[in-house]
Request: fold
Amino acid sequence: MAKQPKQQSSIPQTSLFPFFQGFVHHAKTGIWLAGVYFVLMLFISLKYHIIGDYGVETDFYWSYVPQAKHILQGTLPIEDFHGPIYPIVLSLIARVTSDLFHAGMILSLLSASATLLFIFRILKKLFRADMALVGTILVAANTTFVQYSYTAGTDMLFNALVTGSMFFLLKNDERTWLNVALSALFAGIGYLTRYNGVFALLAVPAAILLANIYQLSWRERVRTSAFFVGIFLLVIAPWGIYCFIEKGSFFYNKNYLNIAYEMFAKGKMGWDQYWSIESQKFTSLRQVIFADSGLFIATVFRNIFEHGVDDLGKLLGWQVGIFSLAGIALFVKERPTARVLGYFVISVLFFGVLLLVFYGERFSMFLLPFYLALALKALTWHKLAHYRFWNLIHIGGVAAIVLIMWTAYNAYQFNSLTIDSGPKEVIGIARWFEQNVSQKEPGAIIITRKPHIAYYLNMKMELFPYVTTYEELIAKMREVNASYLYFGLMEAGMRPQFRQLLDPRNAPSELRPLTYTVSPPAVLYKVELGAKQ
Reply:
C-alpha cells in the first residue's frame, strides 16, 4: 500500500499557539477575556481592597469624592488639574453602589475590561489573532495594569477612552466618517478626563497625514484630520466655554505646576515644601518654560532616555522589554504597514507628552500594547519557526508562555502586598466613632495629612499645615475652625516635629484624645481651643 503524503498544516509556521486556533480566532475571544478579567478582579478587589492606599488613591478621597458629592448636589466644580468626566461618571455609579469608594473601584474594573477588549481588537486588526491573544493576556497580567484595575482613580478610565479612540481610528482599512467621529469623541472625553489627552490633537492628524493610515490623497488626508480635530473641539467646547466664563480661560488648568515640579523641584526639595511654598511662584506654562529654557529642554531630552528605560524595566519588565528592543530592529528591517506605522506614531507622540512630567508607570499604561507589539514581532520572527518542540510549537511560542507566567507571577507578588496596603486603622477609628459618638458632625473640619479619615467620618478635610511649631499649628486650627485632628504614621512622617502626638498620653491641653490604635499608631483628637484670649 502506497504511503500517503504528509499533509501540510494550515496553521502558519510562526503561529504562537497552533493548538488553540479555535479559541484564538473566535469572534468573541476578546469579550471572553474582558469578561473573565472583570469577574476575577471584582472578586479579588471587593475581598481585599477595603480602603484606598496612601498613594494615588489620596487624590480620589481628596479631590474626586468632594467633586462627585457636589455633582450629586447639583453643582459642577472646576478642578485645577483635570476635567469633569471622572467625577461625573463616579457620581452616576455611586447612585447604584451608594458608596463612592466602591463606585471608584467598579469604574476602574469596568474600564480595565473595556481596555482589554479594545487592545485585543487593535492587535488582531493590525497583526494577527495569536499575537492579539498573547498581547492582551500580557497586558492583563501586567503588574501596573492589575494594580490600577482595582485602584480608584482616573488612570484606567483614561486608558480605556484613549485606547477606544485608537480602536475606532484603526478599525477599518478604509476611512469611514463614523469611525473617525467616534475616535474623536472618545479622545475628547479622554481629554475631559485627564488633560494629557490633548496629545490626540497632534498624534491622530500626524498618523493620518504622515503614515497615511487610510491610503488617501493629501487633500483627503487634510480633510480627515480637520474633521477629527473639529469633532474633538466640539466635544470639549461646552466645558471649555464653562471654564472661560468661570475662570477666564478655555483651556483652564494648572498642570504647569506638575511640569514645574519635574523641572525645578524633583530631587531638590520635599513634595510638601514644593506644593506649600515653591509652587506659588509659577502662574503659567509659559513662565515655567522660560524660567530656565535651557534646563527645560535638557530635562525633556534626559527624560527620553530615563522614561524609556523605566517603561521597559518598571512598566513592562525587562523579561519582556528585551524582546521589545529586538522588535524595534525587526520593524526597521521589515517596514511596517501604514496602519501599524500610524499606531506607532500615535504611541511615540503620547510618550513625548509624558516627557514633561515626573515618571510614573501608571501614566504609561496606554503604551503597554505598543511595547508588546514590538515584543511579539520578535517572538513571531519567521526564523524562530525552524526551532520547534513536538512539531507543534516553536521557540517563540514557548517564550510567550514563559513570559506570561513570569509576568503574572511578578504581578501576584507585588499586588498581593499592595492591594490591602491602605490605612486599615482609619476603618477601625471610623467604626469606633460611629458607635460611640452620639453627636455626629457631618461637614465638621478635621486636620489631617491624608484625606481618608475625613471621608469615613463624613467630615471636611483641612490639610495639616506646613508649620514648624505647635503654636503655629494651634493658630492654624483656630483660623480654619477645626473640630478634630487626626495623627498617624503619615502625619508623623511628613511633620516629624509633632511626632509626640502619636502617643495620646502626650496630648496637650488643646487636644483631647477620643480613640487610638496601637499597631500602627494613630490618634483621633477632639480640638478644644476655647474662646480666643
